[in-house]
Design a protein that fits this description.
- The termini are close together.
- About 10% of the residues are buried.
- Helices cover about 85% and strands about 0% of the residues.
- The protein has about 150 residues and is mainly alpha-helical.
Length: about 150
């Protein structure tokens, strides 16, 4: 029997897919950004710009999904006391990513921007590990199956 905290299959896979696109485009942007000063600089600059555009678009969808997660998952889970530690870490990481993304888009000073960028990258690269841990611990504690 699935846990009442487990998300609807379609919603859950939508969250996984959008987070996957967000992670992969961020990772690919890091590579393209590192290569934009290489011999193929024009290609990598275009690739970095396109990846950043897709990353930003998927971030907007992610904001909608995170908002939808609060009433259907976060508040219910908090009331039951299940997975509070990793759930709090998940919320905190997403808050840091949203704030640093805002900072990257709207803040100008270069020295601050570099720190914000590094923070966004490190936290973004850590997110899949935390997501996996949160899901694994939640399923272990509630006894729900992955295929439901």
């Amino acid at each position: 029997m699935p846990s009442p905290l487990q998300l609807d299959r379609r919603f859950r896979w939508t969250v996984y897919a959008v987070f996957g696109v967000l992670f992969l485009t961020g990772l690919a942007w890091i590579v393209a950004d590192q290569l934009k000063d290489s011999a193929e600089s024009e290609f990598w600059q275009k690739a970095a710009a396109n990846l950043l555009m897709i990353h930003g678009g998927s971030a907007m969808i992610t904001l909608l999904l995170l908002g939808a997660l609060f009433p259907v998952h976060v508040t219910r889970a908090w009331r039951t006391g299940i997975n509070r530690v990793t759930g709090s870490v998940m919320v905190s990481i997403n808050v840091v990513l949203v704030l640093t993304a805002f900072g990257l888009y709207y803040l100008g000073p270069d020295n601050f921007r570099l720190w914000v960028s590094d923070t966004h990258i490190v936290v973004g690269l850590a997110l899949p590990v935390v997501v996996f841990l949160h899901i694994w611990l939640g399923r272990r504690r509630t006894g729900s199956s992955q295929n439901r």
